[in-house]
Amino acid sequence: MAKEKDVKTPKKRKAPSKKAVVKQKAAIAEESKEKELVEEILAEVAAPEEISSTPRRSVAFIGSECYPFVKTGGLGDVMHALPKALVKQNCDVKVILPRYKCIPWEYQEKMIYRGAFEMDLCADGRSFYVGIMEYVWDGVVYDFIDNEEFFSNGSPYTNLVDDIPKYCYFAKAALAALNYMDWIPDIIHCHDWQAALVPVYLRTQFEHTKLTTAKTILTIHNLRFQGIYNIPTIRYWSGLPDHLFCKDVLKTSHQDANMMKGGLAYANMITTVSPTYAGEIQSAYYGETLDAHLRYHSGKLRGIINGIDYDIWDPAADGRLYANYTLHNALEQKKENKRRLQEELGLTQDDGKFVIGLISRLTDQKGLDLVNAILSQVMDDHTQVVVLGTGDRVYEDSFRYYENAFRGSVCSNIMYDETRAHRIYAGADALLVPSRFEPCGLTQLIAMHYGTIPIVRETGGLKDTVEPYNMFTNAGNGFTFDRYDAGLLLDAINRAKTLYFEARSCWDEMVLRDMEKDLSWENSAKQYKDLYLGLT
Ligand code: ADP
Ligand code: GLC
Question: Shortest CA distance to 338 belongs to which of 418, 430, 449?
């Protein structure tokens, strides 16, 4: 199956400059007469952006989506934020993406034509046009592969019949474009199944080109999606030699080939987006039938946790919020955000209510059957629930049902809306992430940064980032449960409610603790840089 996501491109948004953001922070601090803080913030303006002194490396990122051009989920966030963070680690980064027709015109019109050529692709030598359009932003070069035949659909992912040829083409065209531009990176960093054939092409059809010196990394953002289709189709579209359709590389069953499997075999290094998920995917339960293959390649497998982009996610400067806040006024201002959110969504306006948010693709991965099973028991006179998401019909309909059943207390926003997401992160008290599996998860990170307490299942990146609240030591960042069980989810929500209503000062301390937690990309970008240095 292709990524089962509803695709929306983000609305126009004017990003504040770093200087403007810092000035705004200073103004907020000054208002609260925090002299020391003002000085600290102004020093930030004076300090030049620090670039790491480790040796320089060039990196080509290859993937199928990237904010703000096109995003369906966390992969889009990472493809935007990690290259920016790597620039500060002394990396020269080019991001290679498909030039989908759905990329907003405001970006399309700024792209500059870099060249074009014909490329052989299929087993019968059929060739295709490859255009290169370039856009430079924030120190990162974005090169878009242009081909109307493959990328003119309204959304990036449609169905495998179209997506298999599309991403065979994209993987090969990305390498061919690097060759054409004569840009030979030290590292080629590929993301998910859509770019998984890159390492395979590099070591076969490109082995006599200059690119062959590059080392490859394949990052798994979600193992559920692998690019599986019958062998004749993948053999035809990829044009890859027959000997690769064996069980150690591309063949996954008697009749099917698996693009992710081939990439995992050929990449110099495999990473995934949290240490726990790196362990989990080697087990049958989480391994999506590739667990044995991953155990075999475990020597080159690492987990590196994602971060969040503080330029986009910053409650002090977020232009989409009703009221900005810092650590110094969060408790008050979050109430204002809550009241305004309730007003906008038609909920009873009362900042004493416990507001639970859920921002998610509405698919099986996200544990929504658990939420469905217990939502009626969660609802009482003191609780409100705000859902934002699109996806499987069954979940969209059930959340609509709950909105009707609990008018004024439940609001189901069956849509993709960046602004609404920001406002829910700021206005809710808690955010629910009860996933069946979660490679990393960004929503719990954003929630914590906005002082919203996560309630999560202990799996993948959720386990690595949310330390369970301990009532004896008053430590921790959120509420957690382990087994995939609706009763345990209900219990976690009830524990959260109890703390909120009966020990508000402990709750408030957790809000501030979460806001202070370092969730930036800096540490993770350093780990990727170490990996690059180790490989080259
Ligand atoms: P996944 O990639 O599995 O969907 P993540 O937690 O890694 O999950 O990332 C989800 C990203 O998509 C976050 O940035 C989240 O805010 C955003 N998001 C998800 N659903 C919506 C929606 N309906 N509207 C706006 N943003 C959304
Ligand atoms: C995937 C995963 C999510 C992760 C994101 C970014 O979509 O489902 O857990 O945060 O990729 O790596």
Answer: 430
- Residue 100 CB burial class (10 angstroms; 0-12, 13-18, ≥19): buried
Count up the domains in the chain and report the number: 3
The range of the structural domain enclosing residue 270 comes to 57-303
Asked whether 61 lines ligand 1 (CB < 6 A), one says: no
- Tens of pLDDT along the chain (536 residues) come to 334 344 443 333 334 444 444 445 445 445 544 545 445 544 444 444 678 899 999 999 999 999 999 999 999 999 999 999 999 999 999 999 999 999 999 999 999 999 999 999 999 999 999 999 999 998 899 999 999 999 998 889 999 999 999 999 999 999 999 999 999 999 999 999 999 999 999 999 999 999 999 999 999 999 999 999 999 999 999 999 999 999 999 999 999 999 999 999 999 999 999 999 999 999 999 999 999 999 999 999 999 999 999 999 999 999 999 999 999 999 999 999 999 999 999 999 999 999 999 999 999 999 999 999 999 999 999 999 999 999 999 999 999 999 999 999 999 999 999 999 999 999 999 999 999 999 999 999 999 999 999 999 999 999 999 999 999 999 999 999 999 999 999 999 999 999 999 999 999 999 999 999 999 999 999 999 999 999 99
Same domain? 252 vs 123: yes
For the CA of 192, the nearest ligand: 2
26 and 153 both lie in a single domain: no
Cis peptide before 434 (omega within 30 of 0): no
Structure tokens that stand for 287 in this block: 């391994």
Pick the last residue of a domain from 286, 303, 320.
303
450 lies in some domain: yes
Give the domain CATH number at 240.
Answer: 3.40.50.2000
Taken in order 251, 255, 258, 261, the sign of the CA dihedral is negative
- Is the CB of 240 within 6 Å of ligand 2? no
Q: Are residues 241 and 258 in the same domain?
A: yes
Check pocket membership of 72 for ligand 1, CB cut-off 6 A.
Answer: no
